[in-house]
Every structure is written in C-alpha cells, then in structure tokens.
Amino acid sequence: MALVTTAEMFKKAYDGGYAIGAFNVNNMEIVQGITEAAREVNAPLILQVSKGARAYANHTYLMKLVEAAVIECPDIPIALHLDHGDSFETCKSCIDGGFTSVMIDASSKPFEENIEITKRVVEYAHAHGVVVEAELGSLAGVEDEVNVSAEDSSYTRPEEVEEFVARTGCDSLAIAIGTSHGAYKFKPEQCTRNEKGILVPPPLRFDILEEVSKRLPRFPIVLHGSSSVPQDFVKMINENGGSMPDAVGVPEEQLRQAAKLAVCKINIDSDLRLAMTGTIRQFFNEAPSKFDPREYLKPARANIKEMVKHKLIHVLGCDGKA
Ligand code: G3H
Ligand code: 13P
Ligand code: ZN
Predict the structure, then answer these.
(1) Residues bordering ligand 3, an ion, CB closer than 5 Å
(2) Residue 142 — pLDDT band, cuts 50, 70, 90?
(3) What is this structure's pTM?
(4) 199 pLDDT higher than 90
(5) Catalytic residue, candidates 75, 83, 86, 96
C-alpha cells in the first residue's frame, strides 16, 4: 500500500468511536518501534514530522525511512503528516516532497490572519491531493522554537469553529481543551496528588469538545499535547541520573473518552522521548563499559514498540482497524 491521506482513516475513526495515533518521528529506531507496533496490532497510523525533525534528520532521510516502513508494513494504511507547519512555504515544501497531510498552525495569529494563511495552504494542498489540519486556540508548552506560556494559552472558542472551517476548507481541526505540549503539562498547583504523591491533573474541557462537535457534525477533531507521561519512564529517568521532577501528562482514560467522541487524531511525541531516554539512561547506568549504539538503541526501540502497542489498543482503540 502507498502512503495514504487521513480522509478515509478519519471517517472510519469517527464512526467507530476510536482515534488514530499520530506519532512524531525523528530517526530510524523511532520509525521502526512505532510501525512494528502498528503492524502487529493491525492499526492505521499517522507518522508526523515537525519542522525541527526536518532540520535534524533532513527531509529526504525521513521520507526514505517512512517509505521503508510502508514497504515493511504493506497491510496497514500509513499517512505522512507535517506537524505544526509554520508557513505556506514549509507546507508547500512538504506537499511537493511527498507528504499526504500537512498542518498549518497559524493559531497564534489573529482570527482573520489564521483564516487567510490556512485557506492559502488548503488551496495548494487540495490541488495536490493532500489534506490539511488547522488549529484554533493555543496550547501551552514548547513546540519547535515557540514556547507558549500557560498565561498565553487559550481554549478554543466554539463560536468561532463553524466560520473558520467553512471559510478555510480545512479537513480537520486541532482544538485547545487543556492539553499542552511537553512533559510538564500541568503546574503542581493546578493538580492534586494521589496517595503515592503523584500529581493528578485537572480534567480536560470536555464541555468545549462537545460544543465544538455539535457545531461541526462529523468533522474530525485533533488533540495535540496528548502524551500521558508514563510514570514508569519518568522513574527510570530519575533513578538513572536524570531529573524530571513533577513531569505529568494527560490521563489515559481521558484520551480514551476523547477518542470515543469527535477526536479522530491524537498526537504523541513526548512519551516516545521518555521511553527512549529512560531506556538508554538505564542501560548506560547498568553497563558503563558498553559503547555499541546498537546495544542501547535496540532496547530503546523495543520499549517504544511496547508503549505504542499499549496506546493503540488501550488508549486510541484503533487496533484491528487497518
Ligand atoms: O508539538 C511538538 C512536537 O513534540 C514536536 O517537537 O518541534 O521539538 O520536533 P519538536
Ligand atoms: P506531546 O508533547 O504531549 O507528546 O504532544 C505532541 C504533539 O502535540 C505534537 O504535535
Ligand atoms: Zn502539537
């Protein structure tokens, strides 16, 4: 199967009450860990590439890694998506370069300007058979060079979504309902603590999601900043020389709930980073004389695979839907 767009995936996900996992890729082991998991559980998949990933690994290398994954996983649909495209030019370069989906993130711009930029990308993308994700509202956290403070983040305003989608023609919409990028999604003072002293974050704004989906019937909604920050990996990092106090993510049950509603795409990057870093830190700590990268990248890839499998089955609910 060649790379596909997300159109068909989202239709089925909407009707089936599940979501597609959109995982960020930066190198071969991450691509392999994610795609082996999806192949084993027969799940449709979105591999996404940020501007930072393209700067790190180079467009051609990433493209070829994804093409290799498509060959190795002939039975599952895979879409290749630009994550947080910051300009028409970045989107155009990915569309021309073989991506099947792009995000134009003009959410930090005023409403009219967001519409104008998004519309321009949609026109170019649709003329080339590529679909477009846009964003309304802004998430807190760090993405590429942009660091949005909690004070500057804002929930999506449901009263704006119909006009935005009608005027831009975008194919899916990322909304802000309380998720945020990175491994520190909530400040300790926003949370309570459970009996083990682990932070329990405030619930997502399901009221906003429901209002948005009432106004946009059958329209695919996207959640960014949806890593759960597994505490096993945080512990592994902290016990092996790292320091990530009070790292906290979005609880899995809330993501599962969102996936049953209008959310068709759930973005996960930080959890991949935690799995890889925790595994490698532990390896270095336990085997200080080893120096063959294959020896530590292999277990890192295996832990990414296990974690992604868990998400596909128990959080996204997209196993068996390829
Ligand atoms: O939304 C942000 C993603 O985690 C991508 O992060 O820009 O550091 O590659 P990055
Ligand atoms: P996380 O930082 O929660 O993994 O979010 C990733 C993301 O939204 C990529 O666009
Ligand atoms: Zn994001």
Answers:
(1) 224
(2) low
(3) 0.96
(4) no
(5) 83
